[in-house]
Design goal:
Layout (H helix, E strand, L loop, with lengths): L5 H4 L12 H12 L6 E5 L6 H13 L13 H7 L6 E5 L6 H10 L10 E6 L6 H12 L5 E7 L7 H4 L3 E4 L5 H14 L3 E2 L1 H11 L3 H15 L2 E2 L1 H7 L6 H12 L3 H13 L3 H21 L9 H8 L7 H18 L5 H14 L6 H10 L6 H6 L15 E3 L11 E3 L7 H17 L10 E6 L2 E5 L5 H7 L1 H12 L4 E7 L5 E5 L10 E3 L6 E3 L3 H10 L5
Parallel strand pairs: 1-4, 1-5, 2-3, 3-4, 6-7, 11-12
Antiparallel strand pairs: 8-9, 10-11, 12-13, 14-15
Helix pairs in contact: 5-6, 8-9, 9-10, 9-11, 12-17, 13-17, 14-16, 16-17, 20-22, 21-23
Length: 552
Amino acid sequence: MSFLVTARKWRPKIFDEVVGQSHITQTLKNAIVNNRIAHSYIFAGPRGVGKTTTARILAKSLNCMNSINGEPCGECEMCKLFNNQQSLDVIEIDGASNRRIEEIRTLRESVKYAPTKGEYKVYIIDEVHMLTTESFNALLKTLEEPPEHTIFIFATTDIHKVPLTIISRCQRFDFRRIELGEIKSLLHKIAEAENIKIDDKSLTLIAKKADGALRDAQSLFDQVISFCGNNVESDVITKMLNLIDEEVYFIISDAVINKKYEDAFIVSKRIYENGWNFIDFVDGLIEHFRNIMTVIVSSNLKLIETAEVYKEKYNNYKNEFSEGDILRILSFLNKLQYEIKNTRNQRLTIEISLTHLIGLEKTSTISEILSKLNSGNVQLTDDQEKKKPILKPDISDSPKSENNSVKSSINSDPIIVVDKKNLNTGKEFKRLWEILIDKIIEEKFSLGLMAHTKLIEVIENKIMLELEHPEDEAIIKNHLQYINQAIIEILKNKYELVFTNSVKNGGKQIHNSNSESSIPKQTIYDDAGKKPFEEEHPLIKSIITELGGKEV
């Protein structure tokens, strides 16, 4: 058979050719140069990252007759025997198929014999975690006190299944996933050597599909060449491997910006017709918005694992989203990721969820809103300019005008001009009232009850509120000076608070904020129920007024 797969043809022959594991290869080279060779090693890490390859290079270098800076020369007798798989001093064992104690006992007997030609007799046991418990126990004594010229090298993809008694007797090296850029670089080098034309987008698709495993990337590379020939195009790779086209993710992010709800159904149809996995789509969409967040936060395109053609597109989103927007979107998608796995109709779930996602409004912090309100820096459309009132809000004690206008920094809805006698119909007033409540709750823990007050109506300069509990009125009045100041800051006018409390007979009791509360004075008893404490006691008063305490 003349054809040799890329993974074997381009397998590294020296330490410096091993991709992405310099922290390990440099340590091993130094150990050889300084003659600090351990009697047992264990290489752990995901599949296809170079564990077995590194073990073979180490075995060859240990027996090389002319080692140069820890690297095998490749020219001496021992190197040639190894390259031709004729060396009797390097024994490779598959732990999955030789896992029984009988095989390990045979191995224990063979280690007693000295190497034939080389300096060391090296045993490489791949997938060592597959050995039985009895087999591991049989190895313990040999590992602790091996013959002088015997070295063990274990490789495993599941280090957690290897007993700690074995690990403690070995030098452990943890192999990393290969970075996307390093995989692309090697595949590009191979393509040039093989006279294969392939673009950056195609290399990115292959590298991302490999998910950090170089061997998988090389296998995919062979598969793509078999299908495409010497001229590889990204569109063909996408169809051949049935990969989700990254363009669909940009369609969604653009739809969020432009509020194009129909794109949710266009993307859903495209996923369904191409046979793409809806779960994979959600995973890819999360990665897409993660890339956008990376650009917004760091402005560093190098932190994004994608093709060069897409990096500029991500860079264009820098001013389209805020950190708060992306965090809300990612939180929404994380919930969708869980829901999509547990739903029967995934397509319908995707369509509904994408519609919600596109409908998410941009976020603004309270500080940003207040800054815009105070500076008057609110952009108006042509229609809004026509509707803009001549008179501005008056924050004096006595209003100078019958009309009062409220500018909103929340969205681009037309500004509502309302008559002060019918102010409760003002949409923007209600929006600003919600901002006011949020500010109060954020700054004053004890006024958390304001979230449960109900805005009834606004007449002239009076704001009528319905309280959930009558005793809340005392707490609010205790902070009335702070609340009035916040009202002026947000609503740009002075208002008087009027409280209404529901009573048992279905009627209302109305209390002005400047009048004394009708809440009866409460008597509170100690645990024994004997000695009464009046409300005027400083501690009891603080509990009632600050924390909303009441008699039980």
